[in-house]
């Protein structure tokens, strides 16, 4: 029996028939408690995270002001991905998101692959987030003597509790996390613009374009470093697809989602590109380091009492927000997979608050492994998991664009109807984005070091996926056969 489930067969003769609406068992049982303000701020939170607040420091040190160009390029492709997902959401909202769409357009093997690549993304991102949180906490003297792994464990425990209560509680926590992040960035940008206009010195340097010219311009280390940091920049956009997962737990997604998704583009331009440009104008790129948030570095150089401490609290919030989102999304994705047979049965369980606690606990368990990584090698933990997370992100984005491409193809055949909210310039947008994602892998290999080591993990990841499929395919086919009899 074929493992392809949910896709309607084209008739042998006559014009193509519209598909029978696909249903996903993983969508049942959820409350619809996420409101418009939650979705909008989740979309913002997904576009502003640890990759910007912590990762930008090391990227600026490596690539200089050209990092802003890398953020702009990756931001365009991130928008294409989330716009493609948005079209699929408007076609059929699902808490299983792209895993559910992969099941409809690519069969159970596609859903299995998409789901586990997404889990790879967020299980490793969870490690990056708790590592970042512990790093930020060490900024304050009261925490400096506490081992990094203990701080990482505390961060994991706080976000785990927030997720297990109810989706409404998660939405509220994420709403206020996002408010803090956006407010902090706006305040930082206003201060930076004031310093540029008034030409007040920052750490002994006069801000402005003179800072660029005095430090070898936009490409101080050449163009190659700008290309090589792209995989880290892709990581910075890793949560943009989160609003697509959240759509399954909100009312009227057809009204809420287009506005939330379309706003991502200007947020990327203002907050990511704008912030990096301002950082580059305020201080020479050599002043930044991977060990400290660049925003904290600037505030510290300004000399405003407690400014650096306040900004450090904000970036700590960003790390906790990202971790919070990762636990939320993987819980929903794993439940969709579990009810199809491609994930452990316990990940399909829900508690009285209509929260899929089994999947959340599995992701948290991998976070505990991250605590161990912080114990063994605290200095390298962030870079190691960032690169592994990048593989999961590239795979997830690739699966979203493949689903979008297959959806477009079926619409051309008359088997499905595209909503009015569409990915522009299809199918060229999907193809160009897929080429970009492959090129990022090439750049990771080309750059050597941890990036090349990460790419060398690909055969092992592929082998694990193939081996895992042979373990679960019997249960997957049995569940699919049971659905066909209904």
Number of strands: 0
Note the total helix count. 19
Strand portion: under 5%
Give unreliable regions as ranges.
Answer: 1-18
* CATH architecture descriptor name: Up-down Bundle
Write down the Rg. Answer: 22 Å
Domains, number = 1
CATH topology: Amino acid/polyamine transporter I
Q: How would you state the average pLDDT, rounded?
A: 84
Largest beta-sheet characterization: none
Q: Give the CA-CA distance, first to last residue.
A: 17 Å
Short description:
With 486 residues, the protein is an all-alpha fold.
Kindly list the characteristics that best describe this protein.
Amino acid/polyamine transporter I; mainly alpha; about 475 residues
Word description of this protein:
With 486 residues, the chain is mainly α. The chain is built from 19 helices and no strands. It has a single domain, classed as Up-down Bundle (Amino acid/polyamine transporter I). 70% of the residues lie in helices and 0% in strands.
Secondary structure elements and pairings:
Layout: H1 36-47, H2 50-53, H3 55-63, H4 67-91, H5 97-137, H6 148-165, H7 167-198, H8 209-213, H9 223-228, H10 230-236, H11 242-246, H12 253-282, H13 294-302, H14 307-338, H15 357-376, H16 381-412, H17 428-446, H18 449-456, H19 458-485
Helix pairs in contact: 1-7, 1-12, 4-12, 4-16, 4-17, 5-6, 5-14, 5-15, 5-16, 6-7, 6-14, 6-15, 7-12, 7-14, 10-16, 13-14, 14-15, 16-17, 16-18, 17-18
């Amino acid at each position: 029996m074929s493992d392809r489930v949910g896709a309607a067969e084209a008739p042998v003769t006559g014009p193509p028939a519209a598909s029978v609406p696909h249903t996903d068992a993983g969508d049942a049982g959820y409350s619809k408690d996420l409101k418009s303000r939650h979705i909008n701020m989740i979309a913002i939170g997904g576009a502003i995270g640890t990759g910007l607040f912590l990762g930008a420091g090391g990227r600026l040190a490596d690539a200089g002001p050209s990092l802003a160009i890398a953020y702009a390029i990756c931001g365009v492709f991130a928008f294409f991905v989330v716009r493609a997902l948005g079209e699929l959401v408007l076609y059929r909202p699902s808490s299983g998101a792209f895993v559910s769409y992969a099941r409809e357009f690519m069969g159970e093997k596609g859903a299995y692959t998409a789901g586990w690549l997404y889990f790879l993304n967020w299980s490793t991102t969870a490690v990056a987030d708790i590592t970042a949180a512990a790093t930020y906490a060490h900024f304050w003297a009261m925490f400096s003597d506490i081992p990094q792994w203990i701080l990482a464990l505390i961060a994991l425990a706080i976000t785990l509790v927030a997720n297990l209560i109810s989706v409404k509680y998660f939405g509220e926590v994420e709403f206020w996390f996002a408010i803090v992040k956006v407010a902090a960035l706006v305040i930082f940008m206003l201060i930076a613009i004031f310093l540029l206009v008034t030409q007040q010195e920052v750490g002994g340097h006069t801000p402005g374009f003179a800072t660029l010219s005095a430090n070898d311009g936009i490409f101080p280390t050449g163009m190659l470093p700008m290309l090589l940091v792209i995989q880290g920049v892709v990581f910075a956009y890793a949560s943009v697809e989160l609003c697509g997962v959240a759509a399954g737990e909100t009312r009227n997604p057809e009204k809420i989602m287009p506005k939330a998704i379309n706003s991502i583009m200007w947020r990327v331009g203002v907050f990511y590109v704008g912030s990096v440009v301002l950082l580059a104008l305020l201080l020479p790129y050599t002043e930044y380091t991977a060990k400290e948030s660049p925003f904290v570095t600037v505030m510290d150089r300004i000399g405003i009492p407690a400014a650096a401490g306040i900004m450090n609290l904000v970036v700590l919030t960003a790390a906790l927000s990202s971790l919070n989102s990762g636990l939320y999304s993987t819980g929903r994705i794993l439940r969709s997979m579990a009810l199809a047979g491609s994930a452990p049965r316990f990940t399909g369980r829900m508690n009285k608050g209509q929260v899929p606690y089994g999947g959340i606990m599995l992701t948290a368990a991998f976070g505990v492994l991250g605590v161990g990584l912080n114990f063994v090698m605290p200095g390298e933990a962030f870079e190691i998991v960032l690169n592994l997370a990048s593989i999961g992100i590239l795979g997830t984005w690739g699966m979203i664009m493949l689903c979008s491409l297959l959806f477009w193809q079926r619409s051309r055949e008359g088997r499905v109807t595209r909503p009015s909210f569409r990915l522009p310039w299809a199918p060229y947008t999907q193809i160009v984005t897929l080429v970009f994602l492959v090129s990022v892998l090439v750049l990771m290999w080309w750059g050597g070091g941890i990036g090349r080591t990460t790419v060398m993990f690909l055969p092992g990841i592929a082998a694990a996926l193939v081996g895992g499929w042979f373990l679960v395919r019997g249960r997957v086919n049995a569940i699919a056969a049971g659905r066909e009899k209904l």
